[in-house]
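Project standup — Tuesday

K.O.: blocked on the structure for the chain from last sprint. Re-posting the sequence here as requested.
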Amino acid sequence: MSNLPPLNNLRIFECVAEHGNFTKAGDELHLTQSAVSRQISNLENYYQTKLFHRERVGVRLTNQGKALYQEISKALDLIRASSEKLSNPSVSQSIRIRTYTTFIAKWLIQRIPQFQDRHPEIEVLLSGGLQPEDFEEETDFSIQFGTGKEKWAGNTNWFLFNDEIDAVCSPSLLEQVQLKNIQDLLNHKLLHSKYRKDDWKVWLKQFNRQDILDSTKEMTFSSSLLNYQAAVDGLGVAIGQIHLLQNELSKGLLIRPFNKTVRREFGYYLVQHSKKVDGNFRLFKNWLFDEIQKMQRF
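H.V.: unblocked you, prediction finished:
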């Protein structure tokens, strides 16, 4: 076996892995479905292993296919980025991304320095907003929140991670008033975010105790960012997005007194708005998925 596999086959493999479909990959690469299928079979013969599960609708990566995709996509992205720099040295090396202010402050901004250390030549331009409809203006990509059935789902998009929530509060709060069971919430102030007003109701449903909302003191904030800061400062108990609060939880600024996570039907998605996906964006996307893998081991 030669040191290098057929590079064109690897490009086709990457495209199929991203689309999960031979026909859609063929449309992007201007190849017939049968030509794509043949090249994938050739690659499987080369590696002497199955890379895709053929299903009734589309295909799905095998474990070996997933491992190959993670490495190959990074290598191809580096080739693309280097090629673009050589071909268009005057073109700005930047990526414009728009998303929710809370997502930037609590998840993205603390991780961006690692991407910049890895790729100092690429400038990441971040802008924040509160409403999804604001995200398509002057941006290449956005990070959206939803079920994947919203208007933006018509664009090319990638699922990032689920929305998982749990009750959180400052440890200092429990030094004043105990919080050992759900009934104890009646002795605490419940903190709400204007844009996530159903979080408490959804979380309490697992205990069949939505009635608690009728008997507690409450405080509502104009954003989740302010809501979480109020919890850190000991103003009350909030329902927090666990993936966005890893920094506060790991440092002990917040605790989860019940440790009862609810996974909602919502999640975060990376959505493409520009027509062309360049090598810089692919480098960013792969880095983003690397960070999500690290997060999920938390």
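K.O.: great, moving the ticket to review. Residues 225 and 244 are 10 Å apart (CA to CA). Strands lie at 52-54, 59-61, 94-100, 123-129, 141-146, 157-168, 190-193, 218-221, 237-241, 262-272.
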